[in-house]
Amino acid sequence: MKIFLAGCDGLLGQNLLRTSAGLGHEMIGSSRHPAPALPGLLSAYHALDAAEPATWDFVRRDVKPDLILNAAAYTDVDGCERDPAQCDRVNRDAVRWMVETGIPVVQISTDYVFDGEAGPYDEEAPVHPISRYGRSKLEAEAITLSSKEGLVVRTTLVWGLEKGAKKSFTEFVRETLEAGKPVRAVTDQIGNPTLARELASAVWTLLARGRTGLYHAAGRDLMSRYEWALQVAEFYGLDASLVRPIDSSGLSLAAARPMNGGLVCEKLARDTGFRFSGLREQLRTA
Ligand SMILES: NC(=O)c1ccc[n+]([C@@H]2O[C@H](COP(=O)([O-])OP(=O)(O)OC[C@H]3O[C@@H](n4cnc5c(N)ncnc54)[C@H](OP(=O)(O)O)[C@@H]3O)[C@@H](O)[C@H]2O)c1
User: How many domains is the chain built from?
Assistant: First the structure.
């Protein structure tokens, strides 16, 4: 299959590319950067802004892929609150232009479509976003699913150690503790740490099985950031007493977060046999 991967330099984008090797797809990458992070894994690269309608005219007319795999997004949740116009343009409008090409779209979404009152959530749970980011992602889900070929994969707390991608929580904790500095981590926000490489494999598995519609895809363990930080300290043999529990009410963040978030991934396991590992196993294999 000829696949146009938007956001090929992001954390998930890089992992989708690495795990695509050997699957027999022709990967065409795109991001805003002048050159891609992993040129050897791409058959072509286009530096494009996903939030420009002309980008999608070009993709439809000149690239002509069989599938658009969208790993591009405005992922700074607080930034989305401060710049809602850009948030909506990247996270919602770009997805509309993708779908309007008539090419099937795979869209990556988030547990931020929920309010966090009663997680973890399965695919049937009622949505109620409490941030601009969550709302824009929910609108993009509906746009993607308006096409019967659309696939939406919701995930949460994605991490990886890829160079050049944004620094993930595991890396932040390890580096801070290695420097002998304290890490403050919230005890009241719950989610499933998800290794980006496993998430990429789940997406490929869904595609190989020809699945469409909505799927949840996230790590097996449900925990707070505080518990996550403690497991990182234990795994790397670092001083866990430097991990300090805090309450998120003490942080002045622009965007509200779902507190009891997280995802139930039974549908994915039932339909494809794919099961995520827990955080200890992820740390061992990252
Ligand atoms: N990370 C998580 O914990 C998490 C949780 C739930 C859902 N998700 C979803 O998973 C997907 C992948 O996220 P990620 O963690 O891989 O995020 P990421 O590392 O921030 O990657 C997002 C990529 O999108 C690109 N991008 C942003 N605006 C763009 C634009 N206008 N045109 C082209 N590219 C643009 C960014 O490139 P620049 O460098 O140019 O900005 C970046 O490479 C997203 O849909 C996100 O909403 C992530």
Answer: 1
- Residue 216 and residue 154 in contact, taking contact as beta carbons nearer than 8 Å: yes
Q: Could you tell me the CATH number of the domain that includes residue 136? A: 3.40.50.720
Q: Supply the pLDDT for residue 249.
A: 85
User: What are the residues facing 28 on neighbouring strands?
Assistant: 4, 44
Host domain of residue 43: 2-159+191-221+258-285
Regions of the chain with pLDDT less than 50 = none
Within-domain flag for 239: no
What is the pLDDT at residue 106? 98
Q: Is the CB of 95 under 6 A from ligand 1?
A: no
Which of 5, 12, 105, 257 should be mutated for ligand 1, with most atoms under 8 A from CB?
Answer: 12
Per-residue pLDDT at 163: 81
CA 174, CA 192: separation in Å to the nearest integer?
A: 19
pLDDT computed for residue 8 by the predictor: 97
The single-letter code of the amino acid at 153 is V
Amino acid at 209: R
Residue with tokens 């027999």: 24
Q: What is the pLDDT of residue 250?
A: 78
133 is catalytic: yes
Q: Is 165 in the pocket of ligand 1 (CB under 6 A)?
A: yes
67 found inside a domain:
yes
In a domain, 209, yes or no: yes
Residue 27 lies in a domain: yes
pLDDT of residue 30: 98
> Cβ(9) to ligand 1 under 6 A?
yes
Query: Ligand 1: does its nearest atom lie under 6 Å from the Cβ of 133?
Result: no
Overall pTM > 0.70 = yes
The pLDDT score that the predictor gives to residue 66 is 98
If you take atom 38 of ligand 1, which residue's CA is the nearest one? 32
